[in-house]
Amino acid sequence: MPDSGDKNWPPFRPMIRHDIEADILLDEAQALAKRSYLIFLFYYVALLGNLAAMIVQEITYKNVLLGIVLGIVYLLIVPPMDFFARHYSLYQGLKNDSKISFRWFFVIQGFDILFGIFILVGWSYGGGGGISALVYSFRDKHYVAGAFSALCVILISIQLFLSFKLWIDAHKYFKEKGWKLWPGK
Question: Using CA atoms, how far apart are residues 66 and 185, in angstroms rounded to an integer?
Answer without folding.
Answer: 48
